[in-house]
Amino acid sequence: MAISEWYTNYILKHRIYYRTLRLPPEDSEIGDPISLCLEIEDLPGIETSFINDQFVNRYFNMARRELFIPPGTKDIVPFKIWKPPKIPLAAGQKYLPLTQGRMGFVFVCDINDLDSIKAVELLYQKFQSTTELSISSIKPVVFLCANKVDRDTETKNFELNLFRIEDFASRMFVRLWKTSALTGKNVKHMFRDILYLINSNSALWQIDLRYVSESSDSDEDNKDILSQCINI
């Protein structure tokens, strides 16, 4: 299969989920919960041979989208200033999430599949290289996730694979979660933890408004007077 054909098929398998929730205060039962609206991108598994520059630039780009709002705007209604997301249903259609500049990543591998583990290791290393070279000071929250820890736990391959991903996480100084999508083990705990970390780093999600002066000496300049909003 040609890379372009594979890439088109890969894009078609994307899923975007939205969920609203109220996050309890961290490590406390006192205080008001935090209301959040989440956009979650679910990307299918990927073979190491297809982790190229095109893939890296598309998904690990931390650039923020600039939105322009007419001067005099006093209130920004959530979602009103963003374009609706696009999910491809056929070849040639565009894929576009609601937001830009992802705030958190969870790299998931099948602990019983060595190729899956190798792909996650390569993905994480590519991600690290990209963010280190980026001029942006915004760093997303990143977890590794070893899934299916409830299967074949007595086999030698399971023990070797688990040791490998634990050693990798230790060397990379990244948090590793051991989960089971079947039983739900640690899944809610992992997502709750990443939400707390994202929420505590306002640089990841806060809207930065920079207003341009409305006073100008020429009509030509007046046409370009806009309040600039950066969606981060």
Automatic annotation (TrEMBL):
Pfam families referenced in this protein's UniProt entry, alphabetically: Ras
GO molecular function: GTP binding; GTPase activity
Coiled coil region boundaries: none
Record-linked InterPro entries: P-loop_NTPase, Small_GTPase
Superkingdom field: Eukaryota
Name by which UniProt lists this protein: RAB/RAS GTPase
Species, as recorded: Cryptosporidium canis
